[in-house]
Design goal:
Structural class: mainly alpha
Order of helices and strands: HEHHEHHHHHHHHHHHH
CATH topology of the largest domain: Rhomboid-like fold
Oligomer: single chain
Length: 373
Amino acid sequence: MDRSSLLQLIQEQQLDPENTGFIGADTFTGLVHSHELPLDPAKLDMLVALAQSNERGQVCYQELVDLISSKRSSSFKRAIANGQRALPREGLLDEPGLGVYKRFVRYVAYEILPREVDRHWYFYRHRSCPPPVFMASVTLAQIIVFLCYGARLNKWVLQTYHPEYMKSPLVYHPGHRARAWRFLTYMFMHVGLEQLGFNALLQLMIGVPLEMVHGLLRISLLYLAGVLAGSLTVSITDMRAPVVGGSGGVYALCSAHLANVVMNWAGMRCPYKLLRMVLALVCMSSEVGRAVWLRFSPPLPASGPQPSFMAHLAGAVVGVSMGLTILRSYEERLRDQCGWWVVLLAYGTFLLFAIFWNIFAYDLLGAHIPPPP
């Protein structure tokens, strides 16, 4: 059913004869059933929740128009949040006769979204096109680059100890700070198979579901913001060290998701969430510990400092700040969120400080950086 035909029917039936701006939920539901209108079940459920946000059991006409038009404004979501939410808590879990892909969509809804109304909305509105191409493309590119350098250097673990590795135009090295692209392209290089495997696994297990729910633009922005913050933080706090690996972006995604789970603990319906939270924290902490060990106690002779671990921590900070704001604004415009502008201001201030630091601080402080390869 298109929007115009339904709204025309509403006007013909005179559901609001006194022009109050409100429509009775029971009246509208009866209209839908009597005319056998193919309205999504999720939208009918949301209509009930909207009605319960009003003490008279009515729905604002504009909210009804937004619902039919698949729009979700901030006022729409506030009305849902203030309602009693008579949506069935296990509705999607009990949905029968689903294909493999729709079961995966249902799994993603329960993994990522903390509210039942949002899960229904996502489940019924999700389309397989466009697919989550960003995280898959980044992961594929990282694997291809690793295989190319592994075959070229004949080394698959601890590649950074090979003298030719640091000559790559993708690696961030403090001696090549003027080549600005390196602040981002280092994410395609990895220390070895162990780091690549860890990052690729998290990107696919967490990044892909996040991209399916929140979209390519938001998740790519969060990932790249973590990557950029990682290299810039290293250039400030560990001035002699290079950086490789996509850990800044990975930790931005993971920390944002974990923080969102913690802040919405009661609403998250993913199974074994406490056990999975503990395992995720242990794995992430172990990866940081491994990076610290390689930085300060290299197991093999090296021609220069080994990659820094500060990118991991910077990515986590970006995830808890920017990432959490994004994940808590599902289907809402970020520009309408005051917290989003605060986060952008803080991130922009950090970028400006880091740029001036890289231009002036190395010479003013007399930093002894290793010669660029």
